Amino acid sequence: MPDDQHNTRDPTDPSERLRRLEEAAGFTSHDVDQLREAVLAVERRLRQMVERLARLEARLDGLADPDPDAEGTDAPGAEPQQPGPG
After folding, report:
1. What is the per-residue pLDDT across 6-36, written as a single tens digit (0 to 9) for each?
2. Exposure string for 21-42, b = 16+ CB within 10 A, e = fewer
3. pLDDT at residue 60 greater than cutoff 60
4. Is 28 inside a domain boundary?
5. Which residue segment(s) compose the domain that 20 sits in?
6. Tens digit of each residue's pLDDT (9 = 90 or more) over 29-57
7. Do residues 11 and 17 lie in contact, with contact meaning Cβ atoms separated by under 8 Å?
8. Is 79 inside a domain boundary?
9. The whole model's pTM is what?
10. Which residue spans within the chain are E strands per DSSP?
11. How many domains does one find in the chain?
12. Which of 4, 11, 66, 84 has the greatest count of CB atoms below 10 A from its CB?
């Protein structure tokens, strides 16, 4: 009767205690592996979002600060420049 044998194991028996510790270590190792994968997935997604944010910021900077050396691009609200004499 294997079920009776399992129920009558002495919890203070060193071999039984070792078996339980090994089993717990196996579950812990599996959990750690799953958490590691989840953290790596979050890190990859975070990097993608940071790169996207940098691209968006660059686009906004380009819209907010037009190139002052470009011809015909005056800042909004600026007076049009009159050609000087001569």
Report:
1. 567 787 888 999 999 999 999 999 999 999 9
2. eeeeeeeeeeeeeeeeeeeeee
3. yes
4. yes
5. 11-64
6. 999 999 999 999 999 999 999 999 999 99
7. yes
8. no
9. 0.50
10. none
11. 1
12. 66
